[in-house]
Amino acid sequence: MLNGRVLVLNRSYLPIHITTVRRAVTLLCLDIAVGVDSEYQTYTWGDLITVPMEESKHEHFHFLHGMDYSVPIPKVLVLHDFDQRPPQTVKFSRLQVFMRDRHTCQYCARTLPKQRLNIDHVVPRIQGGKTTWENVVTSCHHCNRKKGGRTPTQAGMRLLSTPARPRVSPQLLFLKEQNPVWNAFLFL
Ligand SMILES: [Zn+2]
């Protein structure tokens, strides 16, 4: 539960990043952020720990359970004093590449857990290939080994799709399916 995800908005209600429930608790306790639901009702930490939550609002919260308490943690937070603009480009990372490619090997089409996947350079590094959105794909270990230091053409292998820079964070798209209440704040 502490690893549940929370959408963070700047003070203009624009989404700027995703954080964990653990970090959300800190932001709330320090009064750096308040929670918000899709009807734009806001919740301070004081509200969350003292006011009983109406049943109809439950879908807007993760619940932190202790021995004799249960604290609702909002799935969306707004930072009071934070004007940072939403990121204009999607940050490159291995996990984002896996999510872009839906955890599917782009050579043999198998969908696998991330431990069984690799990042493959389409034009291999030894041939001058760069680590960019346009030159990396998700690959299973088997296909990665088989391809070795060759291009797909040299190895006689075909790519399922041409890799490209995503317009929207693949992680955000993936997590939004698990957190439909985020939709009120995302204009994708
Ligand atoms: Zn494969």
Brief characterization of the structure:
This protein has helices at 21-29, 45-50, 94-100, 141-147, 152-155, 170-178, and strands at 5-9, 15-20, 33-36, 42-43, 61-65, 70-74, 76-79, 117-121, 136-140. The protein is an alpha+beta fold.
Radius of gyration, in angstroms, nearest whole number:
21 Å
How many structurally independent domains? 2
Major beta-sheet overview:
5 strands, mixed
Secondary structure category: alpha+beta
Strand arrangement, major sheet: 2-1-7-3-4
Q: Whole-number average pLDDT?
A: 92
Q: What is the first-to-last residue Cα distance?
A: 27 Å
Number of helices: 6
User: What's the total count of β strands?
Assistant: 9
Topology:
Layout: E1 5-9, E2 15-20, H1 21-29, E3 33-36, E4 42-43, H2 45-50, E5 61-65, E6 70-74, E7 76-79, H3 94-100, E8 117-121, E9 136-140, H4 141-147, H5 152-155, H6 170-178
Parallel strand pairs: 1-7
Antiparallel strand pairs: 1-2, 3-4, 3-7, 5-6, 8-9
This protein binds zinc ion (ZN).
The site of zinc ion has 8 residues, from strand 9 and helix 4.
